[in-house]
Specification:
Length: 263
């Protein structure tokens, strides 16, 4: 069962998402409206909430945030395939509800990662594909990687599923059971925006991963400077949330390791 620190980390991350910040500022404004008379402060908080919402739900901010994350790594050169025996795939969103069909359990990010992994396995059958990561959103159903495996089996492709880890740092720790030689290079396959944090954590565990980005979300929200770019769209709010999540996570772990080194 995940420890208290895991849930505390998740709760703190959610509090700093754009949607949560917008809600918090509007909630505070509501309290001022009911109890207070300081109009200037109310107006300021309302302005901040609207500002966060607008810039988070138009393409300019998510494009800037995601491009900075996703430009760090490119798809490995063909000669890199000779160096690796393993392709490690980190899971994305999984829906644990029992009434869903198998194909309905994976979100868009999951399918993009899985498809790329299956393409590699089909082109290089000798490579071993390890899909790692579970689902933390349901206490009674932690399966994550297993659903990837079942879908892969429908296409006649065999992969190994590891459901135990619920986050990236735990995935790096658990992987030591499956790749005991930490210096052995392997492909670390995940979404491009997630790779900076994943690479940082796997290297901290002593691994020698080769980054393999799958999809570049900044291309989806690249501004065309048409009139439609200036209207809020929930797609861009989601992209901003994804980027903020990565920046917060990377900052958290860098501070954690820095404090651990100091103390």
């Amino acid at each position: 069962m995940p420890d208290f620190t895991f849930f505390l980390k998740k709760i703190l991350l959610y509090l700093f998402y754009p949607t949560s910040l917008i809600f918090l500022f509007l909630f505070i404004v509501s309290i001022y409206v009911v109890l207070g008379e300081r109009r200037g402060r109310r107006r300021f908080l309302l302005f901040i909430a609207i500002l966060i919402y607008y810039f988070s739900s138009t393409p300019f901010l998510p494009y800037f945030l995601l491009k900075h994350l996703e430009s760090k790594y490119t798809i490995p050169a063909p000669e890199s395939f000779k160096k690796v025996n393993y392709v490690v795939v980190l899971t994305a969103g999984v829906y644990p509800q029992q009434n869903l069909l198998l194909e309905e359990r994976l979100d868009r990010e999951s399918y993009l990662r899985l498809i790329k992994a299956l393409e590699i396995k089909k082109a290089y059958p000798e490579k071993k594909v390890l899909i790692i990561g579970g689902c933390f959103k349901n206490e009674n159903n932690r399966l994550g990687a297993t659903y990837y495996k079942k879908i892969a089996e429908k296409f006649g492709i065999d992969v190994q599923a590891i459901d135990e880890p619920l986050d990236t740092i735990t995935s790096a720790k658990v992987l030591k059971k499956y790749i005991p030689n930490l210096k052995e290079p392997f492909f670390l396959l995940t979404s491009a925006y997630h790779l900076p944090r994943a690479m940082f954590l796997f290297k901290k565990e002593g691994f020698n991963p080769i980054p393999y980005p799958t999809n570049y979300d900044y291309k989806i929200c690249k501004p065309k400077f048409s009139i439609w770019d200036f209207f809020p769209d929930p797609l861009y709010l989601e992209m901003t949330t994804i980027a903020v999540h990565e920046y917060l996570g990377l900052t958290f772990y860098k501070l954690k390791f820095l404090l651990k080194k100091i103390f």
